[in-house]
Amino acid sequence: MKRLLFFFFTLCCLAATCGKGRKTISGDCIDESKINPDMACIEIYQPVCGCDGKTYSNECYAQISGITRWEDGPCEGN
After folding, report:
1. What's the rounded Cα separation, in Å, for the pair 25 and 45?
2. Fewer beta carbons within 10 angstroms: which end of the chain, N or C?
3. What pLDDT digit, counting tens, does each position of 38-50 carry?
4. What is the mean pLDDT of the chain?
5. pTM (whole model) above 0.70
6. CA 58 → CA 11, 27, 66, distances in Å?
């Protein structure tokens, strides 16, 4: 559990600092009703690039962050 919390905290910190200077996200990119930080995700690294320009560890992390669209692989520049 501690490991999961540490990983999630690290991911949040990276997401907060990496997105600086990027353009505003369109309203259909994030569905706030789908944000669920209490949900656990499998620790398998299969990165996806969210429509918000952030790289998520896998589809599960994108989904619990409310991301509605993503592409396989890390975002360019990450």
Report:
1. 25
2. N
3. 999 999 999 999 9
4. 82
5. no
6. 12, 22, 13
